[in-house]
Amino acid sequence: MGVRRWIEGWPVYRQATQGDLLGRGAAAKSDGSARIEARTHSADRVVKSICPYCAVGCGQQIYVKDEKVVQIEGDPDSPVSRGRLCPKGSASKQLVTGSARTNKVLYRRPHGTDWEQLDLDTAMDMIADRVLKSRRDGWQWEVDGKRTRRTLGVASLGGATLDNEENYLLKKLFTALGAIQIENQARI
Ligand code: SF4
């Protein structure tokens, strides 16, 4: 490396000669920094979404490459969050791609000592059977001579990670089943 190039490599030289006297711009950038690319740079496309973690519902931009999620950032178009995500929301890529994520149905039978895998159709049928039985067993046509037509056999307790649409559907479903115990942890 020549002496001239060596001197030109000094940040203070660049500050003085490139109009960046406070050293807050390009003069302070190292070659290493100049080579760094944003993790979103190579994405094929961006999909709008909502953070799944809490009821605030911050907007997200999901960056996709080769049909895989490569990064999740805040959505500047969201009137709720205007591009911001809290630390939990910023880490939501882990929720989607983390190796600890369970993506098979696991079932532990009564008195079982270990989990076993079920296919989704079998599990859905088992849940539907249990809901129907509990609804029937807890059904009340009337109480103290007053018509109630309700069931105390099933209840719904939602969590703050449910979004508006999920809560809407839960309320519709459980009310249609005749349940009256429909709650959400975010209301407590
Ligand atoms: S967890 Fe954080 S980023 Fe996600 S919706 Fe709630 S406040 Fe927004």
TrEMBL record:
Source organism superkingdom: Bacteria
Keyword Transmembrane helix among UniProt keywords: no
Cofactor: [4Fe-4S] cluster
Domain 4Fe-4S Mo/W bis-MGD-type: 44-100
Key word Chaperone present: no
Gene Ontology biological process terms in this record: anaerobic respiration
Entry GO CC: cell envelope
Keywords of this entry: 4Fe-4S, Iron, Iron-sulfur, Metal-binding, Oxidoreductase
GO molecular function: 4 iron, 4 sulfur cluster binding; electron transfer activity; molybdenum ion binding; oxidoreductase activity
SMART domains to which the protein is assigned, alphabetical: Molybdop_Fe4S4
Location in the cell: Cell envelope
Family: Belongs to the prokaryotic molybdopterin-containing oxidoreductase family.
Protein name: Formate dehydrogenase major subunit
